[in-house]
Amino acid sequence: MLPIAIDAMGGDHAPGAIVEGAQRAVADLGVPIVLVGRPDDLADLRGDLDVIPASEVIAMDADAGASVRRMKDSSLVRAAEAVRDGKASAMVSAGNTGATMASALLRMGRIRGVARPAIATPIPVPGSTPTVLLDAGANAEVQPAWLVQFAQMGAVFARERYGIATPRVGLLSIGEESSKGNDLVKETHGLLADPAALTASGATFLGNVEGRDIMTDGVDVVVADGFTGNVVLKTMEGVLRTLVRSVFEALGATAVAEPAIESLMPLYNVLDPDQTGGAMLLGVDGVCIISHGSSSATAIVSAARVAAEMVEAGLVDRLRVAVAAG
Amino acid sequence: MLPIAIDAMGGDHAPGAIVEGAQRAVADLGVPIVLVGRPDDLADLRGDLDVIPASEVIAMDADAGASVRRMKDSSLVRAAEAVRDGKASAMVSAGNTGATMASALLRMGRIRGVARPAIATPIPVPGSTPTVLLDAGANAEVQPAWLVQFAQMGAVFARERYGIATPRVGLLSIGEESSKGNDLVKETHGLLADPAALTASGATFLGNVEGRDIMTDGVDVVVADGFTGNVVLKTMEGVLRTLVRSVFEALGATAVAEPAIESLMPLYNVLDPDQTGGAMLLGVDGVCIISHGSSSATAIVSAARVAAEMVEAGLVDRLRVAVAAG
Questions:
Q1: Same domain for B128 and B177?
Q2: Cβ contacts (< 8 Å) between A253 and chain B: which residues?
Q3: How much is the ipTM here?
Q4: Most exposed residue of B12, B126, B163, B268, measured as fewest CB within 10 angstroms of its CB?
Q5: Are A289 and A92 in contact (CB under 8 A)?
Q6: Number of domains into which chain B is organized
Q7: The model's pTM
Q8: Nearest to B241 among A140, A212, A240 (CB)
Q9: φ, ψ dihedrals at B35, nearest 5°
Q10: Which of B127, B211, B215 has its CB closest to that of A232?
Q11: What is the CATH number for A17?
């Protein structure tokens, strides 16, 4: 397999945690890696890893479109070019999300027939496979036909990533009846209810689902516009953060703190975003993983593992087939 | 004070739990109550409580608009009429949410100048006052000017309900910068950034906030369209339900289950929706509380208490002033 190109300069803890994660992915998992970034910054960190040189770094809060257009020698743009040029099999970045999307879109291009790429984010579900939520933020304004493609791509991803033979797709709304929702959802519901819509993706359409269904084993793929999806994702992050802190504080003040907290560690690990492998940009002509800005070395190991798995599963070709048929 | 009209027939546990809650509100809090419902069904339950007779019951899953138009002798319609006719000071229902809104809107009417009423739902925040989220589901499609009114009304509610002198209002979006969001949010941001918009509500505009800010003490009022707000509310419910169950299961299997779970009860009570007093329909010309369909007797006690407090605070007149000035 061609190496996974990891943007060594992107993320709150770059380059240290990123390169450490890359080293561990090679040593522990045997995943081939090439770093992308400033050779001088990486000289003392890279060890045996190859480096694709890139002189510029797109800041975490920079304007995505303008940065990608102007900073042609940035680590993000060079990582996407490495995939396009057949020097890498996938890209991973914990940097500026918008710039990661723009780099992948502009350099790799879209899969033929895809109207817009979407961000697919795995939502952990205790005791079950994660639920794939998409679009988690790539497209704040969407059209019904795009949501149908998100459903098709999300189903393919759920099957390849989690081995779900017949993914159950739900449309995020505010009531189960097809009459519930905003105009976008009502129109999309009609399109997804056509049995032909999901045939090539091997999925079934559950109809509308609600926010309370996402973190359950009742649905495998939840489709939403990128505004709603991103709000949902960050709402979940906020509730989890508040609850985890509150629970640990309450237990920490008791005489049984140690065994009580110990018993919660398996649950904590299920919910830990560092374990999910990051979000995937579906619809571009290559594997592109968008890791959280706060990614630790462990998160990068997970992302490299998932990238390698998706390359070996032929994810992009499977997405191509599902979208072409739809 | 005129009595609070409680729809005795609405809710998953009606009429038993509803009437029990009404009895407790009278006995424990001294709140005057009148029940609304079928006299025969309430004869054995009502005790000393007066009953406004209503022969019909709108089912939990009935079409809201059609039911309210056709079932003129339903408990929901009669409860709203009691407020309109000066026989009750407020209405409370755990029944069909859409029909509760429609009854209140059609019988009480809107406050002059209000474009659309909105549902304001308190989101519990451990260690702080709740965050008021609105619109939590009344309006799936909205206009920017309506969101400005939601901000004004939500701020007045936060002050009267939680004593927050200068409520901080945030606009729910997918990034803090004013350039982030969908078209609706970007246009609304411009309107709320006008210092005059919130002057009469005594509030300050924080700018955009994200989903992760809702359950923190960083914001007092979060404004959203009713589709996004309802999705957020149900997402939070789902995450809380999954987490609470998972935590109790993990702790329950340990040798220290009893003291560990005991230490979490204060947190559990903060998050318990039965304690919040329910959601409030803001913008109709009367106090109207929409309780959760699964309301227990305790939830009805909380709702009756909040209804009485909002009547005594003159909430509707304060909303009238804030909206007229805006």
A1: yes
A2: 263
A3: 0.95
A4: B163
A5: yes
A6: 2
A7: 0.96
A8: A212
A9: -85, 150
A10: B211
A11: 3.40.718.10
